[in-house]
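In this section we walk through a basic example: taking a raw amino acid sequence and producing a predicted 3D structure, encoded as discrete structure tokens. The instruction is simple. Fold the sequence below.
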Amino acid sequence: MDVAADGTVSNIAQGIQQKQYDVAISIFDGQWSRDKTRWPSFVAAQPKVVPTNATIGQSAVVIPPGGDLICYIGQQPEGFVANDAVGITVWNGNNSLGKSATVILPGETPATLAAKLADGINADENLGTWISALATNEYIIIKNLLASSLTLKAAAGNIATQPVVVANQERCILISLWTRTEPQREQYGQIILQTLAQQMQNFGLQLPDGSWARVKMNRDMPTKDTHLPDIYRWLFYIDVEASVILDDTLWSVLAIDGSESVGVVS
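The resulting token sequence is shown next.
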């Protein structure tokens, strides 16, 4: 079975009539789509996290009233990479606040990153009422300003991308089988029907980005061309539904709850 190189109707018909091939298949994309979105946006897969070269340690976890602890920032031997970040989350009972500092300049060092983080802590109108920060080289001295103990967790990370499904679109595809005889149409038409049935049973086709397109048979129609009496056709109308996926950029530093899983940093 040959697939016509030029998919125009006239060239396919001419090829069949001139017996360049006994059987041909043409696929026509309807070039239109319907909105089939049924639910709000949702995460389609696990995030892909960029490894970080930044490190951050801490001398303690609990800061007593009026006490302090030290955070120290480091880097891998090859230095920071773009979007490396360090951050802290502080708990006062069940309430928590966080702050991060991101590498955005070439030649960034642990000392400049420590200064960024300390400045951010002191400038925060909420976190700055709980703690104060003083940067000395790559070290940050964090002091508890409250009369109750605080808990602190430091973390380092880089960005992550997370695919989010924002919509679903359905497109109409026409598969046409062209043959010179009726038995050929029946033979190869059954093969196409079985293939489509298998695709529907398996939900559909996996696309290059890893997502799936749902294949549904709309209708099929065997026909004999009235203008070309020596050509038999079988038309398969297929609906293909696929997701519209966008990549959402997230920070892999610390979420507001202080975990190191992917979350938006405040």
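Looking at the output, two observations stand out. The chain is about 15% helix and 45% strand. Residues 162 and 196 are 32 Å apart (CA to CA). In the next section we compare this with other chains.
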